[in-house]
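quick one: pyridoxal-5'-phosphate bound model?
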Amino acid sequence: MQRMTTQAEWAARAKAVLPAGGFGNFDPSMFIREGRGSRVWDEDGNEYVDYLIGSGPMLLGHGHPEVLEAVLEQLPKGQTFFANNALGVELAEDIVNAMPCGEQLRYVSSGGEADMYAMRLARAFTGRDKIVKFEGGYHGMSAEAQMSLAPVKQVNFPQAIPDSAGIPQSVADEMLIAPFNDPDYIRSLLAEYEGQVAGIIVEPLQRIIPPEPGFLQLLREEADKYGIVLIFDEVVTGFRFAYGGAQELYGVTPDLCTLGKVIGGGFPLAAIVGRADIMAHFDKAVVGADGWLMQLGTLSGNPVAAIAGIKSLEILRREGQYEKLRGFGHQVQDMIRKALDPVGIGYRIVGDPTLFEIVFTDAKPRTYRDVLAGDAGAGKAWNDTLRAHGIFKSPGKTYPSLALTDADMEMTSHAISQAANAVAQLG
Ligand SMILES: Cc1ncc(COP(=O)(O)O)c(C=O)c1O
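yep, here:
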């Protein structure tokens, strides 16, 4: 039998051709060979229960047979055309029907692109330049989105500081940074900048931090008061928190939302969705050359991603899927409580049953700074031990999938007990 190339060998090869030895996304020492259902295998042959699920898209698990069948049916008919295709229209219909804010949709290939265009649309629609973003909010890699994404230095609000080199100061000057979950701050900020703010972009649940009751409603009211475009970044929460996303779950409808991850069923597809009068700025015939937002992309709406999305959404519409997903989340959260309560360390499970993480802290985190103040050492011991016992996840998030099984739950429970022991030993 041919000897397999080990992860260490792949890492050495990767280092030669990839800066930082990887794709920039995840621990570059790991190489995933295969994923099936709820499990993934690395190139050393280790098996894991997958709570990373491609950073969100694989909500149905890897290689869902119905999604695969649909994709395999499309592949011989063509991968991409650049031109309109019927599957892209069908998926757009499904999405606008699902999302409370949905009237029209424009496709792009990644969530970050969708966010970039949503902010640009807000500017085109209002004729104003400033964008309000929350500290710690993640909206992809555009220059605007890189402002105060993960700052280690804490500056006074609303000053924006870039988390990336190569961004001109002029971009920072147009961004206003606010703390999440702080109604008084938002009220005073918007009053001070009356007539200058084009859009507010927000993750309705910021990374893992839930909105406090009334916070999203307040953003809606304030946006209406000042004629500001309210953008929900639902790249993560769309079709995960509920079929109609966080806007359905929390009962607040934005003007625009951005979607990605689940809607492409594991293929590159994302979208800007929202009010037709705002989306009209993609249509030169309606808004004229001056109001027009030029937007095109080679792979936008490609039929392979579209059919994977159509099938994924069809499966998600079936009875009981979201109850099942929430049930898995509750089960894992109960395991964590059972294992960590006796340890006597301060911790909080932060998030939603469909997406959460543990922060080792005594106080409920409400903002980015609260999460940052958690005990990083305990978090590292927790995550390293989970990995060593067959749990594949990012250090910042736990994503349950619909493919989880009883056997996965047993393995998860064992790993969580071990992780709690490791945290206990830190003293
Ligand atoms: C809330 C949010 N917005 C935007 C993005 C960017 O999406 P993409 O990685 O597809 O560009 C992500 C990615 O994780 C995200 O979590």
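The radius of gyration is 22 Å.
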